[in-house]
Every structure is written in C-alpha cells, then in structure tokens.
Design a protein that fits this description.
With 1077 residues, this protein is an alpha+beta fold. The protein has 19 helices and 55 strands. The structure holds zinc ion.
C-alpha cells in the first residue's frame, strides 16, 4: 500500500544554497573560544558568573624568604616573620627567591548559592597552595594550572578563611635568559602577581568549552564533514540565543549528538568495545636540569599533590610516577603529601613504575651502578609500598645500553617503556612494541608510545597519532598514551581528563574512525596483555638485538668532564671499599662493622648524580655546583671508610716498622709498578715479584729513554719502541710482533680540535659536520725528559691551544714487569681549557683493517661499524665507550684505554678519543677549568681478549699499597673470592659486597634476615661460555645460591673442594650469595 505522505519535491528552486566553504567555517571556530578580539562576545565571556578581587574581600600579605632560601612552612610562618601588605600587580624576585603569601578571603553572602568557587592565582611562576595549618594542598603553574577549587569548609558565607601561597620565582623550565629554554639562567627575573581572585565558575560553560575543543579538533581532520556541522550549529545556537544559560545546555545537547551522552562522567569508559589506546597520567619531573635539586623537591610535592586531588575527583584517572629518590624526598620533607600519595598507591590509582633510584643515564654509569639503580630503587618501593615495580620506566634518556634487558629481568622487571628514540634525527626507529634483546640473549617487552611524547596534552591528535604512527600494528595495535604536564607543570589537568572523556565518547559514537581510548587501566595491565600474547604464542613480537643507539645528543658522552670523572672515580672507590669492608667483616678486627649506612648514602648520592640530565652534562651550572658538593662528600666519606676497613684488616701507618703490602682489589694477579707509600719508602716505585720488590727492576725489562735528534726522543722497553717527535708519536714499534703500528707519514697520539656548533642543543649534541673542521694542534714547546727510568720513562710536551688554553701531555713507558700483559704507552694530560664551542680530541691512526670496532660497555662489548655505508652506520660517527675501545684485525689489534672519558669514534683505521667540549648552553661555563686526563695506547698481537679487558681495569683501579705488621698473614684472606688460575680468563668477579639484609649490616629498610652473606657479582666479559671456580681462600661458607640483582635466591649451588664452580653464558651477569658459617 502506498504511503499517505507524498513529499512534493518543488518544481521551482526557492533560493540559492551554497556549498559550505570549509576553510572559512573551520577558521571561524577559533572565534568561539579564542582570547582575541571576540572574547567578550564568545563562549569565554560566560565562563564566570562572578569574580572578586582585592581588598577588602581578598587580603594579601607577603613574607619574602631571605637570600635564596627555600624555607619550610613552619619556618615561613613562624612568629616574628614580618608579613607586609601586598596586592595584585606587585612583582617579586629575583630568580629562585621564595615569597610566602598569607591570603585571607571571605565569600560574600550573595555567592553562597553559586556552583563551583575557585581561587585563581597567576604569578607567572610556580607556586603551592598551603592550608592554614601547614598542609601542602596543590601546586599551581603558569598557564596550565592556575585554579584551586575551594573546599566546602572555605565556602561559608561571611566567614574569613586563610590559606598560604608559596611562590617560587622560577618557571617550569627554570629561569633561562631571553626566553630560549636552554640559554643559561638569568639571575634577575621578577614575576608579578597578575591574578589572586575568587571566581564562581559556570560549569556548563566549561563543559561546553571542552566539548567544542574536541569536536573542533575533529573538524580539522577527516571528520570535518560531521564535526564541522556540529560546531557550526553550536555557534549558531549560541548567537541566536545570546549565550543564555538555557542555550548553553542546548549547545551541549548538540555536542552530545557527536560525543555521546556519557561524557560527563567516568561511565563513558564503561563499554565492552575493545580499546586501542591506554591513557596514563604522568608528569616526568627531571630530578635536576634547568633548576637545582632543591627546586625538584618542591616540583614533586606540587605535582603529586595535584594528582592526589584529581584521583579523588576522576575515578577513571590513573597516575604513574618513577624515581625512588623523589619519593624519598617527599617522605622526608612533606609527610602529609607522602601519606596522601601512599593512600592512593594502596588504592591502586597512584602507581609506582621504574624500579630505579632515578631515571638515570644508561650510557655512562658503570655496570654495578646500573645494578644499584635497580637495587636501591626496588628496595625503596618494596619497603615503603610493599611492592616492587614491574616496568622499567625511562622515557627520557640519551641512548640505551645493550645490557639493560638483562639487568631489568634480573631486577624483577619484564617490561620497558621509553620514548626518546623518536628524537633520532637520521633514521626512524622501525618498531613501537617489540622484544628488546640484550647481549646475553635476555629480552624485555619494549613499548615506545606512538604519540611520540611522554607528556601528551591529551588532544584529539595525540589519540589519533597513537594509531597513525604505530609501527607494530602487525603484531598488536594497542598503545600507551602517557599524558600530563611534565617538569613542574604538575601532571595531568582536569581539562585533559575531560578531553579524553570526549575522545572516548566520540569513538563510541562514530565508530572505528576514532581510535578508542581507555582510562582506568594500569601500565601493568597493558603489558600483562602483551606478555600473555607473547607467552601463549598468539603473537611473535619483532626482535631488536643490542643497543638502542640514540641518533642525537652524542655530545653528552663528553660534556661536563669533571662530573663524569667524579662518577668513574666514585664507582671505583665504592668497589674497593665494599671489597675491603667485606673482607674486614670476615677476617678483620672483631669490632669492625660493615658500614652499610655510609655506603648506602654514598651510593644514593652517586646514583642521584647519574640522573639523565646530570651525568650527561645537559644541566645548568647550579646543578654542577650541587653535584660537585655531593661528590666531595662521597669522596670524603669514602676515604674514611677505606681507611677504616684497612685498619680493621691490620694495616697501619708504618711507624712501627711494618712492611709495605700491595692490596689488589681486582680478581687477577697483577704485576705492575706501584707507587710506594712515602711514609715508609724513599723509593718512588716498587713492583710486584712475589711480594713488593723495591730493588731496581732487572735490566732486561727496564725502560729507557734517549734523545736522538732535536725534539726527537725514543722510549723503549722489552716490548715497545716509541718515537716522540714534536709531542706526537711518529713510530710505535712492537718488538716481539715486529710490527710498526703507526702508518707511514702519520702521527699517533695527535691532538686535534674541531669547531663544535650543533643545530641547537649545545651541551647535548655534536653534529656530523663538525668532522669537517678538523685541525691538528702542533706542540709549542720542545719535549723534555721528565722521567729517566729504569722503572718508568717519560717525555713531556706543551701545546698552546689558544692564548687562554694549553695542554701538557706526558708520554710514558714503564718497565715490562708483567709478562702476562702487553706493554702500553701511557699518556697523562693536564689541560687548561677556556675555549668557545670547540671539541678537543686525540687521534690514533693505525695500520689495522676491520669494518667493526669494539667498545667496552657495562658488562660487555658493543661492536659498531668503522664505515659509513648506510645512514644507520653513519649515525654512529660518535659513540660511547667505557674503559677501552679496540680495533683489531686478524692477528693484531690496538686498544685505547682511558681513566675518565666516554666519547669515542673509529673511522676507517683511525681511532679517536674525545677529551673536552666547550658548549655555552645551558651552562655558560661548562668545562672552563683545569682538567687531568689519562689514556693509554695498548697494541697487542692476537685478537681482542682478556688482556685488553684487564688492562682497562688495571688502568682504572690503582694497586693500593699500605703497611702491615705481618703481610703474609693476610695472604689467605686476600685470595678469597677470586677465580682459580684454571678459570676462563673472560670471567670477571666485578663486585664483592655483603648481603643487603644481613642482620649485622641491614639498614632496617627491609626486615633483616638471619646470617651473614657475601654477594659476588660476576660476568663473562668477552662473549662466550665461561667456566670457572671461585676460591674461598679459607673463608668458611655453608651454603651458596645463584640469585638475582635483588638478592632473591634462584637456585642453590654446591661448593666443591676448590670453591664455587660457575658457568656463565656469553655476556651473562650472575650474582652469587654465599652464607658464611
Ligand atoms: Zn628528562
């Protein structure tokens, strides 16, 4: 039956109707919420129902903290502090100063019915709201978080309320000069109080503002047709009804046609459709960078307090934070805020990730430092919150050591989250979610957020990029979206949470065109699902073997040289103390106690300085004043601890006729020259030959030097002949191998200088084009003999670099006293450095051919190309090494050792050690001082093997000499925990220490366990199956276990007559726990 309704399509066109011109209509959208000329006409004009400001409703009084101090609440509010009257418009400074405002306000009678009342504070710098009784309530930061919602107790009409505002004269990114983030700080900045008002907010208007924002963003995408119509209708409605309260509600109804009707609560996330993007709040706070540690402590309390408030108001919100150090600071300085965080951790909404002490650099710290980052991190999280972290969270670091997956697994973490690799400026890393595989084969599931930021603004684009930039969708299309303002911006805002609700509402409304974002899940939920897929074989993730080399920030291997040197020396000192203190608790004075508390403090300080803007050299000058002070403390405590341990072992000052004794803290027999203690010996050197021999070295192994021509010297020993001409080495002849190692016409140990102006990030980057500016530096003085043998010979030369800078290098050769080790040419350099944007290096041309060179890294070796075949090869024009780099061909090789350097390059046959840079931002005075650097050239017949590995250790760990009344009595104890001579020479006993929870050593953080234990950390250093036996040297050991880094027992081991037999796979790091009887 035909319908009764008959539409009549008119025969004649009634009027013209044009096609909407999208670019004009799209541009119009800005008029609705913009701050420009229409702001008094548009939606924003309706945002506040009322506003009050100034006296008598709001009274401001201020007390400025003296100098640049950062007083506590109690100090700031104590009797006698004079609070003077202040008003809006007053300005405060200078940079880094702190000003406490007492804010007294009364809500007027006729406001009592109004909706949400907020206190708005805008001073252009960071601030914190405190309650009258000293509770830190919430952080404020310019632009993105200027409101504090008045709690009900502050809304009593006619009642006076008091709060305090702690104003800190710095912005999120400190106080840079001239508005360029990385320029050195301007100490004279002032900030004026622009807003100190109480407002009544129209929440419908604010909600419509969020609606319009997200629909408007969609109107700029493939969604332009529908979304643009919705926006246009909203604007037209608003205009037609003059922005009345009723029309705001109608406008919202129009928006909901597109966003769905559940966007006003967390219910929007309650649908069973599979989400793709997991939103997770975070606030990446750099532990120092463009501000000092002292400011970080406040950034933490501000940011995390904000999050506790938001977690209460938004049930779907989840927030993650890393860095045990930041939690510890909060615990020590802000117990109220810490308890608030703890409560939310217990509820599961505030989540701990990372498992490390700080978000540290991973290129430069030594192996044991990486281990301790996890040990101190995980133990802190476990002791305070009853749980370890399961995900290593390190979004922002400048390259990723190849052994991280192994160490993560051994620290109870199977997952790794990061981001920085998206900054590569040469090659685009090809994966988002993948298995990252260590040198030893250990793997973690790695995820890099495809939105390519760890502080997303939670916009439409962040959600869509989570799919459009996802590179592993073949395996799994889900991703994490870490959002929130970082670095003192205070983390996620309510605005961001509102926007995400609307993004989700939109997906459920319009379908697959918008990736579905989910909230309320955890990072662990996200990885659990991936891990399950991998475990069940549902998905086989793509693998990436070896380091995640960062194609940027290569200057950070070299910038801030003193800091890097302090790190290396502190690691060595800690190693030696732990070894000697362990022995002292076993065979030393009965009264001696393992100095766990002091060691913990030393470690925590060293670990703190390894933060990813501190050790790499990318922080401002203030941060290095701080770290210098901390290192000085570390060395002071360390030297005392070392003396205490030595004394407990019976060493003395030699005054009672005791004899010199060498203390070797490394795992193999050493025969090198050693400096004699001046207190007992007139002779400068001794050498080890059974005991310490102080007679002259035998003629056949002695070193000699002679001048053969004007400014030409020849240094010789049994193994090498070194010709020094004009300060450089023109011939380095290997006597036994009958091989000249310097190419004809070349000079090795040649100083070279480069122009060093990267594209932007000065302290961070050295760019590929710097290589083209190479200039040789010529010695400006004739060389002179400074040591004439027979133990050691040396020749010194000075090179004037400029009118302000010079370098004196001393090339030396020692008697070849150790028949197991090839001889090396040692170089000592004293540099006075005052250059601008220059890079000093030392070059070693060789006669060796290989397409790959080897570099020591933590617990292993990384091989990298010596050529520029592909862009991936070329990107590695400057790389990181630890104690040595090596270029070997079949039958012969050359190693370059160093005592404090990390930057290196091998191009073709030329090796190059990076010495000093001269960036002027963010520290205008970086490295402008005296430096002392040592390196060595070690030619070797045969392949790269344990001789280089050991030489690298020997060069860095001095043989210590001290006096002992009965040195022979110590021999047995000093032989404990070393490998027997038939063990694989690739095995290294790297660390000897006491158990973390031993009852006589525990720091009380975790429950002490019965018994006393020795912990041995070992590794295979050359990349092959290694077997060996660890001798107990008479120490009685009852039981032994293989354990993880956290000293959890994994399997029991048996102890044979010779000691503990171990077998390690290639580049495996293994920890053994021995229970003492
Ligand atoms: Zn960072």
């Amino acid at each position: 039956m035909a319908s009764a309704f008959k539409p009549t399509y008119p025969q004649l066109a009634e009027r013209p109707k044009g096609k909407q011109i999208h670019n004009i209509y799209r541009e119009r959208l800005r008029m609705f919420t913009g701050q420009g000329q229409y702001k008094k006409q548009n939606l924003m004009s309706k945002l506040y129902d009322a506003r009050m400001s100034g006296s008598p409703n709001i009274e401001l009084h201020v007390w400025s903290a003296p100098k640049l101090s950062r007083p506590t609440f109690d100090e700031a509010t104590k009797k006698g502090n004079e609070y003077r009257k202040a008003k809006k418009g007053d300005s405060f400074g200078p940079s880094w100063s702190t000003h406490w405002f007492k804010v007294q306000f009364t809500v007027p009678e006729d406001w009592s019915y109004n909706g949400q009342l907020e206190f708005h504070w805008e001073s252009g710098c960071e601030a914190m709201v405190w309650s009258e009784d000293g509770k830190p309530l919430q952080g404020l930061s310019p632009n993105n978080r200027t409101e504090w919602i008045l709690p009900s107790e502050c809304r009593e009409a006619g009642e006076e309320n008091t709060i305090y505002i702690e104003m800190a004269c710095n912005q999120m990114f400190g106080n840079p000069t001239g508005g360029d983030t990385i320029q050195p700080l301007d100490p004279h900045r002032y900030f004026s109080v622009r807003e100190a008002d109480i407002v009544s907010v129209n929440l419908d208007v604010r909600a419509l503002y969020y609606d319009f924002w997200i629909v408007g963003d969609a109107a700029h995408s493939w969604e332009e047709h529908q979304a643009l119509q919705i926006c246009t209708q909203i604007m037209d409605k608003f205009i037609a009804e003059d922005g009345s309260d009723a029309c705001i509600k109608d406008c919202r109804e129009i928006a909901k046609r597109y966003l769905g009707d559940k966007i006003d609560s967390a219910d929007v996330y309650k649908s069973d459709k599979m989400p793709l993007v997991q939103g997770i709040g975070n606030c990446h706070i750099d532990t120092c960078w463009l501000w000092p540690w002292a400011e970080t402590k406040r950034k933490v309390v501000r940011s995390w307090s904000n999050q506790c408030d938001l977690l209460d108001r938004y049930p779907e919100h989840r927030f993650v934070a890393s860095q045990a150090q930041q939690f510890k600071w909060l615990e020590m300085n802000y117990p109220y805020a810490f308890d608030r965080v703890k409560k939310h951790i217990k509820e599961g909404s505030f989540q701990t990730v990372g498992g490390s002490w700080v978000e540290h650099d991973t290129n430069l710290p030594g192996g044991e430092s990486l281990v301790r980052q996890f040990v101190y991190g995980q133990r802190y999280f476990e002791s305070r919150f009853g749980q370890r972290c399961r995900t290593f969270w390190l979004p922002d670091t400048f390259g990723y050591s190849t052994q991280l997956p192994q160490l993560c697994r051994l620290a109870d973490m199977n997952r790794f989250f990061t981001q920085k690799l998206s900054w590569n400026n040469i090659n685009n890393f090809p994966h988002t979610t993948f298995n990252w595989v260590s040198l030893d084969g250990s793997q973690v599931i790695c995820h890099m957020a495809p939105a390519e930021t760890y502080t997303a603004m939670a916009n439409f684009g962040d959600v869509t990029r989570s799919v459009t930039q996802h590179k592993s969708m073949d395996q799994d299309a889900t991703s994490l979206l870490p959002f929130g303002f970082g670095d003192g911006g205070g983390g996620p805002t309510s605005e961001q949470l509102e926007k995400l609700r609307r993004c989700r509402g939109m997906s459920d409304q319009i379908g697959e065109r918008m990736p579905r974002v989910q909230m309320g899940g955890t990072v662990e939920d996200f990885f659990d699902r991936l891990e399950k897929k991998a475990a069940t074989g549902e998905t086989e993730f793509v693998t990436w073997y070896g380091e995640l080399y960062f194609e940027l920030h290569r200057g950070t291997y070299t910038s801030q040289a003193a800091n890097k040197r302090n790190n290396r020396k502190a690691e060595i000192l800690l190693h030696d103390i732990e070894y000697l203190a362990t022995l002292a608790t076993i065979g030393g004075d009965k009264k001696y106690k393992y100095p766990k508390k002091d060691l913990d403090e030393m470690w925590e300080n060293v670990l703190l300085c390894q933060f990813h803007d501190c050790l790499p050299g990318s922080a401002i000058e203030m941060c290095y004043d701080d770290s210098d002070e901390l290192y000085a403390k570390v060395f002071k405590t360390g030297n005392r601890l070392l003396e205490d341990a030595m004394e407990a072992l019976g060493f003395d000052d030699g005054s009672r006729g005791s004899l010199p004794k060498a203390v070797n803290t490394l795992g193999w027999e050493r025969k090198g020259l050693l400096h004699m203690p001046t207190s007992t010996e007139p002779k400068r050197y001794g050498f080890i030959d059974g005991g310490i021999n102080v007679s002259n070295v035998p003629k056949d192994i002695a070193a000699s030097v002679e001048q053969v021509d004007s400014d030409v010297f020849v240094l010789k020993n049994k193994d090498l002949e070194v010709k020094v001409e004009g300060g450089a080495i023109t011939s380095l002849y290997d006597v036994k191998a009958k091989r000249e190692t310097v190419p004809k016409g070349s000079k090795t140990n040649q100083l070279v200088i480069y122009d060093d102006k990267p594209l932007y990030w000065q302290a961070w980057d050295v760019e590929v084009y710097h290589l083209e500016s190479r200039k040789e530096l010529k010695a400006t003085s004739e060389a002179k003999i400074t040591e004439a043998g027979p133990e050691r010979v040396a020749v010194s030369t000075t090179t004037q670099i400029s009118d302000k800078s010079w370098i004196t290098t001393t090339v030396s050769l020692a008697a070849s006293v150790d028949s197991n080790q090839p001889s090396q040419v040692d170089v000592d350099a004293e540099v006075e450095w005052h250059e601008t944007m220059k890079f000093l290096k030392v070059e070693f041309p060789t006669t060796i051919t290989n397409t790959e060179a080897s570099y020591e890294t933590q617990y292993g070796i990384v091989r990298r190309p010596t050529h520029y075949n592909t862009t991936w090869d070329m990107a590695k024009f400057e790389v990181c090494c630890h104690r040595w780099a090596d270029l070997s061909e079949h039958g012969y090789g050359m190693s370059i050792l160093n005592d404090s350097k990390y930057g290196f390059a091998t191009a073709g046959k030329t090796m190059r050690l990076s010495l000093l840079r001269a960036p002027k931002a963010p520290d205008a005075h970086a490295d402008m001082k005296r430096h002392h650097i040592r390196w060595a050239i070690l030619p070797h017949a045969g392949p790269l093997d344990e001789r280089t590995v050991r030489a690298g250790f020997n060069f860095n760990y001095p043989l210590r000499t001290a006096s002992h009344p009965n040195p022979a009595k110590l021999d047995k104890l000093l032989s404990a925990f070393k490998l027997t001579s038939d063990s694989s020479p690739s095995l290294i006993v790297d660390t000897v220490k006491r158990g973390e929870d031993d009852e006589d050593a525990s720091n009380g953080d975790m429950p002490a366990k019965k018994g006393r234990h020795v912990i041995l950390r070992m590794y295979d250093s050359l990349g092959g199956l290694s077997r060996g036996t660890i001798s107990m040297g008479g120490v009685k050991v009852g039981k032994a276990w293989k354990c993880n880094l956290l000293e959890d027992e994994l399997e029991e081991m048996s102890i044979g007559d010779e000691g503990l037999e171990v077998e390690l796979r290639a580049f495996e790091v293994a920890t053994f726990k021995l229970r003492l009887e």
